[in-house]
Automatic annotation (TrEMBL):
Keywords annotated in UniProt: NAD, Oxidoreductase
Presence of keyword Signal: no
Protein name listed in UniProt: Maleylacetate reductase
Domain Alcohol dehydrogenase iron-type/glycerol dehydrogenase GldA intervals: 10-153
Organism of derivation: Arthrobacter ginkgonis
Domain of life: Bacteria
Domain Fe-containing alcohol dehydrogenase-like C-terminal: 165-345
Keyword Protein transport appears in the UniProt entry: no
Classification via PANTHER family: ALCOHOL DEHYDROGENASE (PTHR11496), HYDROXYACID-OXOACID TRANSHYDROGENASE, MITOCHONDRIAL (PTHR11496:SF83)
Amino acid sequence: MKDFQYQALPMRVTFGAGSLKSLPEEVRGLGLKRVLVLSTPFQEDLARQVSDQLGELSAGVHAEAEMHVPIESAHRAREVAKAAGADGYVAVGGGSTTGLGKAIALEFGAPIIAVPTTYAGSEMTPIWGLTAEGEKKTGRDPKVLPSSVIYDPELTLSLPVGMSVTSGFNAIAHAVEALYAPDGSPIISLMAEEGTRALINALPTIVKDPADAEARSDALYGAWLCGATLGATTMSLHHKLCHTLGGTFNLPHAETHTVVLPYALAYNAAHAPEAVAALQRATGAQDPAAYLRQLSLDLGAPSSLRELGLTDADVETVVELATRNPYANPRPVTAEGIRALVTAALNGDPV
Ligand code: NAD
């Protein structure tokens, strides 16, 4: 056994179909009296139902969450929270909504209760993100880690099939990079392997039948585990590339993760034998990178970065940004290596 350090993050998780009904209890359990319910405009109806369920514990609904938390949207939400006298936030939705809750908590420090409806995993991390003048900044702060998370698979039944697949791959990407993270540990590797297994088994069933309750439950269970590995470790090349592609070229978050993951894993594989062994067990495949690529295509995910809006002219900028600051990665990050990786992902070449 290699040496390791492991710092457990406090996590209170309630998991199960219908578990949303425990929300008022969770709010009271945290000693909160007036929580502001957050959502995107698209999920406002759900947020209103949640607010109604909370009754006098609700300080109202703020349904203005946006992708990547623009700083103006954070300012607005903080004003609304202050005016409503909120002493906590309930984030109902995906990573964008949880991100808005984190932006408020970063300023005011009050607890967040997250009710995730995608597989992005933000609810398990102390990582915040804010976008100002076209640049997305992220940081870690324990006060943005949700105090309580309610995973209710029934809320994911409405997640469109395409988003379910790409969001699932977004989760698997956390697990893959946690398996070779510089600060990984045996317990995180167990979670990463199990989370990957749960998702790759559940996603094909969800594509066939998005209403399959068991597959939805398994996928959300996998997303929890993968999110926890993201919160506990430092990510490497894959996340660095996706951050650049999303932040600088505005490529869609989950789809970009889905396309890049097999190429990033193939780049690192020979330098991360234990991670590959764990992924071989999870996938049952000899070459996990090729397996993930084929699975994403079989499940109808986008197949190239070109399809997502990247062009040949952008490649050098990605190479420059991805190699500008050093970071831990199993295989040395070279301009030549990244150019080959990004070009292959741009064209959707075989992995
Ligand atoms: P999202 O939150 O942007 O959601 C996309 C759209 O899908 C929204 O309109 C949303 O309302 C809708 N939606 C969500 N759940 C739905 C459901 N069950 N049914 C129908 N529609 C639903 O997407 P995301 O991929 O969850 O989050 C992406 C964002 O989260 C990015 O900004 C990313 O950087 C961030 N993120 C942060 C962390 C972190 O640790 N800080 C981790 C992962 C992702």
